[in-house]
Amino acid sequence: MKRLKGILAGQAGSLQIVMLLSLIVIGAVLSSSFAVFILQLLPGASPNLQNPDALRWIQLCSSIGTFLFPPLVMAWLCSTRPKEYLFIDESPQLYALLLVMLSVFLITPFITLTGLLNQQMALPSFMEPVERWMREQEDLAEKITGLLLEGEGLLVFSANFLVIVIAAAVTEEFLFRGVLFRLFEKWTRNRHVIIWVGAILFSAFHMQFYGFIPRMLLGAYFGYLLYWSKNLWLPVFAHFVNNAISMIGLSDNRLKEHEFVTGEISPEHLPGFVLFSLLTLGLFILCVRLLYKSCRKED
Q1: For residue 150, what pLDDT is reported?
Q2: How far from each other are the two terminal CA atoms of the chain, in whole angstroms?
Q3: What would you report as the CA-atom Rg of the chain, rounded to the nearest whole angstrom?
Q4: Which of 33, 88, 180, 213 has the most CB atoms less than 10 A away?
Q5: For the residues 128-138, what does the mean pLDDT come to?
Q6: Burial class (CB in 10 A: 0-12, 13-18, 19+), 217
Q7: Residue whose C-alpha is closest to residue 223's, from 290, 291, 176, 273
């Protein structure tokens, strides 16, 4: 293994991209196969995707194999200092973490508003098959989320928190902000291009086109957090907070039907919600300015 460390460091970006894509495919296949294999061994368990417990297990294994395994291997192959390569060699400051948490809370209403606008998207009539397919993907994603959140009790909540909040935040950021940031640096030094391309890929990978814009905006914010701080743990934490807000809201029977949680704002509440979103957006900008100054001081 030591002989392989940094073996791709001086290679072309195209070769590194091919290697990453290969690792993603291998990781996805192996992790899914492993998850199904374990379920078949357990008494009373089955790889039935309609079973919430089985779905959570498969989702967890797939996240690790598809999103976490490839970046870790790429960091080992592309650098003699893998932790530095992935921006995980230093711990974030508590002050920065608090500002990140506050910023995510403040941007949430505006993200919800952009999601509401995104849902109004309509394609030309000649693209009706494409639009129908997009709707089907949206319905499928909603169905999977509903299955994952099915059930009550502390054990179910803890399992969902591990899969939906923790695992998703860590694994996706290691891929879309960590290794992809490094690979795109091979092609361009323009950090804004790197951040926005990563954000577009991050949103597209979820296959939820009627939530594409808000997820892209969040991905861009996560990218700027990495750019400012050179610390992957800040976007991981921001992703964690965002997922936690969504999961807790959708897991609570008193909240999950509320229009501000579902994002389906009624016409009579829309003007007030727009004003509230713009107000919190302004506070978000102020919070981000403080965060940016904090990151610059650390440099």
Answers
A1: 76
A2: 33
A3: 20
A4: 180
A5: 74
A6: middle
A7: 176
Dig out the tokens for 140 from the structure: 């499928």
Write down the pTM of the prediction.
0.90
And the tokens for 261? 């949680």
- Three-state secondary structure string covering the chain: CHHHCCCCCCCCHHHHHHHHHHHHHHHHHHHHHHHHHHHHHCCCCCCCCCCHHHHHHHHHHHHHHHHHHHHHHHHHHHCCCHHHHCCCCCCCCHHHHHHHHHHHHHHHHHHHHHHHHHCCCCCCHHHHHHHHHHHHHHHHHHHHHHHHCCCCCHHHHHHHHHHHHHHHHHHHHHHHHHHHHHHHHCCCCCHHHHHHHHHHHHHHHCCCHHHHHHHHHHHHHHHHHHHHHCCCHHHHHHHHHHHHHHHHHHHCCCCCCCHHHHCCCCCCCHHHHHHHHHHHHHHHHHHHHHHHHHHHHHC
- Tokens coding 279: 């107000």
User: Above 70 in pLDDT, residue 77?
Assistant: yes
Phi, psi of 123 (to 5 degrees): -90, 160
